[in-house]
């Protein structure tokens, strides 16, 4: 019992010593104002870290080592870019988590942002629900339906461990010769504005 008390005391002293000597990092203190946190973080960053944080790379060239070596701030899955054929949600989660581990292992521990083109459903994911493209959704003139589609897409995206989607496109296409007119809900700005109900969804 005496030995156990001594061991406990020793561990407590070592822990207290390490906490006392830990550097205070204002940018990691959620109680600080956002501007102060940003200023503190920016003052600590090297030029290489700043460049890395402004860089977004495609999933196919990302790895935990690449995230750590180049201080990468963001990764994306472009159209058709998947971790494996018919990848399960668990495969997606493991991939995203592996990239995040690399990002968090840098000296500043800045988390990366993973983004995907889940514009009208989580189209890169096997067996996900796919909804009509924006031009078709706009034709419904139904903001409540659009919001529910946003909710369904958000659930499927989060189920794969991805926190960010590049959506929606809120362009107002008035010339069908533009190759991406199908990404516009309507040529009427009022309809496009109503269809932004997908965002809170």
From TrEMBL:
Keywords: Glycosidase, Hydrolase, Signal. One of its GO terms (molecular function) is beta-glucosidase activity. Transmembrane segments: none annotated. It comes from the Eukaryota. It holds the Pfam family Glyco_hydro_3. InterPro entries: Cellulose_Degrad_GH3, GH, Glyco_hydro_3_N, Glyco_hydro_3_N_sf. Its EC number is 3.2.1.21. Residues 1-22 form the signal peptide. It is an enzyme of class 3 (hydrolase). Residues 46-196 form the Glycoside hydrolase family 3 N-terminal domain. One of its GO terms (biological process) is glucan catabolic process. The keyword Signal applies. SUPFAM superfamilies: (Trans)glycosidases. It comes from Opuntia streptacantha (Prickly pear cactus). PANTHER family: BETA-GLUCOSIDASE, PERIPLASMIC BETA-GLUCOSIDASE-RELATED. This is Beta-glucosidase.
């Amino acid at each position: 019992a005496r030995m156990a008390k001594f061991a406990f005391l020793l561990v407590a002293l070592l822990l207290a010593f390490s906490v006392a000597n830990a550097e205070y990092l204002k940018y990691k203190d959620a109680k600080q104002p956002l501007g102060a946190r940003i200023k503190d973080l920016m003052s600590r960053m090297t030029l290489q870290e700043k460049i890395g944080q402004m860089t977004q790379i495609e999933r196919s060239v990302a790895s935990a080592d690449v995230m750590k070596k180049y201080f990468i701030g963001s990764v994306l899955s472009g159209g058709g870019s998947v971790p494996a054929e018919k990848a399960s949600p668990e495969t997606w989660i493991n991939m995203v988590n592996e990239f995040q581990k690399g990002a968090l292992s840098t000296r500043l521990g800045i988390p990366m942002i993973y983004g995907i083109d889940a514009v009208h459903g989580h189209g890169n994911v096997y067996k996900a629900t796919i909804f009509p493209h924006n031009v078709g959704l706009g034709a419904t003139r139904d903001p409540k339906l659009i919001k529910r589609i946003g909710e369904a897409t958000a659930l499927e995206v989060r189920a794969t461990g991805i926190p960010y989607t590049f959506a929606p496109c809120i362009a107002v296409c008035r010339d069908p010769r533009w190759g991406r007119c199908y990404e516009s809900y309507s040529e009427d700005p009022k309809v496009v504005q109503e269809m932004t109900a997908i965002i809170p969804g």
